[in-house]
Write a structure and sequence with these properties.
Helix 7 runs antiparallel to helix 10. By secondary structure, the chain is of the alpha+beta class.
Length: 288
Amino acid sequence: MKRDVTEFAALASRFGFSWTDEELKRQFARIDAHKSGFIDQAEFLEFCKSVLGSGGNRKVVIKFMKQKDQFERERASQTDLESRYVIRASAFLSSPEFATAVKSDEEHELADYPHGIVLPAGDRNLLSIFQSERPSTAEIPLLVKQVTEAVHHLHSKDLMHGDIKMNNVVRQGNRLCLMDFDAAASLSNGSLACAKFSSGVLPPEMFAKLTKDEKGKYNKYWNGDDEELPEKCCAKTTKRGKHMAVKTFAVEDDDTPRDLDALPFEPLEASSSLDVWSLGCMLFMMCT
């Protein structure tokens, strides 16, 4: 049976591929050897071998996730991204059957992580590349260019990554790609930044200076939440007595912000400038 481009897209989606119209046409044209507008079974199998490997085994990693909102954010973010620039997920696992299977695995203690994302196994992340391979001054500009192109691709799709750091850049084949989109946010619909964060790469505007009363109010906002969150999210007092907090917030299961009026500051909207600051921090580490 021959398949047209629409049927090819449906089949490919079962392997985790979700392309833009332009990339779909490019992929289809590559395997439509006779340029007939249709592909047969042999051509589709050749496509599978080219992207999945022909040895019968394909190395993957599973990212187990605890927070449903972060899982859903990552799934929604990957819809329109190209595999040339990002590590695209092969599958998103969040069924009751998956949760039951995870709970039954007592060896790895993953009972609190009922969501999973299947990803192709990359090579090394950028931090490991710098620590182990010591790129030369001639090689660094190429690495910088690839990361910058990946960030630009996200922004061209109206998406802020939100957590750009060396650990979230992975080498796949001969290119560096971005991964981990659980902090991503839309740039076009008023989405807020910093639902999830890494404080070491945040710009100054993402920190709030609080009074003593505001610190108490902010820390109370997090009471009763996941035990791992308050330590990271609650306000801290510096050695000089200043009360500081990251402008983050809690979210509901449907990824909507929770009770923003209870915060002692105004959360910031997602912006490409936040990624650019984080990218600058990374480039500084790479070039010094």
